[in-house]
Amino acid sequence: MRTSRSMRPPPSPETALAELERQQLLRVRHTVADYAEPHSTTHAIVAGRRLLNFCGNDYLGLARHPEVTGALREAASRYGVGSGASHLITGHGREHARLEEELAAFVGSERALLFSTGYMANLAALTTFAGRADRVLLDRLSHASLIDAALLSGARLRRFAHADAAAAERMLAEPSGSMRPQRSTIIATDGLFSMDGDLAPLARLALAARAHAAWLIVDDAHGLGVLGKRGRGTLEHCGVDVREVPILIGTLGKAFGTFGAFIAGPAAVIELLIQRARSYIYTTALPQAVAAATRAALALAQRESWRRERVLALTAQFRAAAVTAGIPLAASFTPIQPLILGGAREVLAVSRRLFDAGFWVAAIRPPTVPRNAARLRLTFSAAHTEEQVGALVHALSGALHGMAQAS
Ligand SMILES: *Cc1c(COP(=O)(O)O)cnc(C)c1O
């Protein structure tokens, strides 16, 4: 075969890596060698240092809770480590079935369906319910997995300004153009935004969706377990009935401290996902032991409401002290507190200073966040103490002050 003159080999990985390094965008993994305290993820041992962890997602302090790890151990010795097959072959077990019932009851939906990850749950939600002729409207700061899911669905993707329900309404009202009029529109958004800590305007988005016969899909990976009187998440906080949201996505690796994800919704929605969702059908089921551990975590999250009260109180303490110290805060009352500094270089420098002072706060850089919006993403956990939060503010103030002097 004749090769075209315009053909080039793909760019070399070495060149791509050098370019990332030049832009200060190279990612490095820090290996957690161990945790220094029993039952908690707040003190991590990294590179021989004991660090206070202020960047994980273990909001309720459940990841190493003895009831959770005990349930995992017990179920693993009973059912094994691997589930052995997909849910539709032989991989679906009693712990999965019970967890699905408990999750549905928790969020108030008819049914729930377990997935191995939130990424896969989002792929399932959008590829099952949107196709090439449909339209997906997405908040501009939605999680990468929602964006990838919308792209994979083949639907026409429009992105509206962050948390701007009026912008979404304007898109809904646009004439469908070449779209066949009988096709549908889906609005998809994070509930609590993972990198900003603020909330989607769910009440107004739900109204808009209803007015235009669109579906509202909410990915509440960070809100569930944390927000709302009963921990039912951003919907509960915003006073939105779960029936207004035909697809609610939750993850289990954050507030619930385990691993996996679920979609909650009406029975027929769940049944169609079982029939059609490729990221449900063509993959090995989550281990039953992980489902058992999650059941223990879900029970604790519901029984011990002090955990979400505490993480929100520690967050409020941080905010009050940060204001006093002149630390610039974003508009978030949730356990996700971004400190937007702008450039990747500055953020890396502050993160390194904090590391040297014994605090682990990861630098979040593009493409995870928009260009010129690199940030420290601070997170709080019910397992932190008031003293630790106070020490963090002190160290942060020092690190930022050092930056100002250096520049
Ligand atoms: C973490 C996260 C996901 C992905 O969930 P995993 O279970 O980690 O794959 C999806 N959406 C949002 C908003 C997230 O923060």
Instruction: Look up the CATH topology of the largest domain.
Output: Aspartate Aminotransferase, domain 2
Could you give the order of strands across the largest sheet? 4-10-9-8-7-5-6
Write the H/E string, N to C. Answer: HEEEHHHEHEHEHEHEHEEHHHHEHEEEH
Give the CATH H-level superfamily of the largest domain: Type I PLP-dependent aspartate aminotransferase-like (Major domain)
Secondary structure category: alpha/beta
Average pLDDT confidence is 95
What ligand species are in this complex?
pyridoxal-5'-phosphate
**Helix content, binned percent:** 40-55%
**The level-1 CATH class of the largest domain:** Alpha Beta
Identify the CATH architecture of the largest domain: 3-Layer(aba) Sandwich
Number of helix segments? 15
Span between N and C termini?
58 Å
The domain count comes to 2
Identify the overall geometry: globular
**What percentage of the residues does DSSP assign to strands (E)?**
15-25%
Describe the largest sheet: 7 strands, mixed
Poorly predicted parts:
none
